[in-house]
Amino acid sequence: MTGKTGGDPEAFEPRNHSFGPTHFFEDLKVGQRFYINSRTQTEALFAAFQLASGDNHPIHYDRVYCQARGHRDMLAHGLQVAIQGAAGAGVFPHVLGDSLIGFIEQSSRFLKPVYVGDTLFPLLEITELRPGRTTGVVILRVTIHNQNGELVMDGEHKYLVKKRPA
After folding, report:
1. Which of 114, 120, 39, 110 is nearest to 74 (CA)?
2. 13 belongs to a structural domain
3. Would 133 be classed as within a structural domain?
4. Domain for residue 60, yes or no?
5. What pLDDT score was predicted for residue 1?
6. Beta-strand (E) ranges in 6-150?
7. Number of folded domains that form the chain
8. Hey, what's the torsion of the CAs at 17, 31, 29, 139, to 10 degrees?
9. pLDDT tens across 67-91, in order?
10. Are residues 57 and 79 in contact, defined by beta-carbon separation less than 8 angstroms?
11. What is the residue range of 82's domain?
12. What's the first-to-final CA gap in the chain, in angstroms?
């Protein structure tokens, strides 16, 4: 074989296997949007979240209980809805690459019910950039709409990001 293929150890470099170049705090702009793929909230997701959280209130797992209280189906956990906005499910942390230090804060407001079978459409949008000396805080608004275009949750995420090295 010739060239950098197959058995040539220089043919592949794991640290080059990334989404793209690292973007630093200075590269970000207010108004930038980061879409996250839509997800239908299946019964399997309800069961997986219950298993992980330990929350076994019947409003999440008993259709008769839910319908007796005016709900059309099983109601999603609030935190189950909030995690649909996890940045790692989209491109945001991959755009930042090695400049991302950590997820430091979040808030959520639950505005409409989410039921089994609903499809959720999360979006992150940069609303503020707070520079520090060597890092900055990136503040993103998180919105989650359902298949009917209704805003079911909004909130805020904050990330600590490195500034470009001098």
Report:
1. 114
2. no
3. yes
4. yes
5. 45
6. 33-35, 39-40, 100-110, 119-131, 135-146
7. 1
8. -80
9. 999 999 999 999 999 999 999 999 9
10. no
11. 22-162
12. 43
Query: What is the tens place of the pLDDT at every residue in 52-70?
Result: 999 999 999 999 999 999 9
Reading phi first (left if > 0) and then psi (alpha if -120 to 50, else beta), residue 89 is in alpha
DSSP string, 55-89: ---GGGT-HHHHHHTT-SSPBPPHHHHHGGG-GGG
CATH of residue 115's domain is 3.10.129.10
Which tokens in the block code for residue 154? 């909004």
Model confidence at 162: pLDDT above 80: yes
The secondary structure of residue 131, as a DSSP letter, is: E
pLDDT tens-digit readout, 96-141? 999 999 999 999 999 999 999 999 999 999 999 999 999 999 999 9
pTM of the model: 0.88
- CB-CB neighbours of 58 under 10 Å: 14
Token pair listed for 82: 């909030």
